[in-house]
Amino acid sequence: MKNILEELRIKNGFTQQELAEKLEVSRQTIISLEQGRYNPSIILAFKTARLFGLTIEEIFIYEEG
Amino acid sequence: MKNILEELRIKNGFTQQELAEKLEVSRQTIISLEQGRYNPSIILAFKTARLFGLTIEEIFIYEEG
DNA sequence: TACAAATGTCAAGCTAGCTTTACTTTTATT
DNA sequence: AATAAAAGTAAAGCTAGCTTGACATTTGTA
Fold it and tell me: What is the ipTM score, two decimals?
């Protein structure tokens, strides 16, 4: 899974800390997601989509398997 | 999170076992999801959406929190 | 009504997603 | 160049999502 989290965060002028707070997760989680270290839970994906006014599919890109 | 998995499964004439195989998970996982015992991983949500030709948002309904 | 297929329950174990804490490196501004 | 803010790294611990296996119940149909 790829994602455009960092791009969206910067486009919206947020720091990692600010984004973490808005999504109610730790800054570590933001870092890990931006770096593709692991995938978000579906709850976090929903919260992220809602925050940026996009669909999950627009933010998190599933690579076929 | 609510979901319409069971409805989709029956509408498409699948048993839990068949759906499990198509989604490459165990039958237990299908049961647990249908019963709302836990949420799917985002990967499983993507696979499910792809299988039924719907979006994640159409199958899994996030209840605000 | 017997039998098989489908569904459900229980429990123990593994790993991915997330947390916290503490420290280092990079980037920007003065 | 000094400082502070932002971003990155590392590691240990917790829990949700998933697995396997064994057994019980429900449903459908011969």
Answer: 0.94
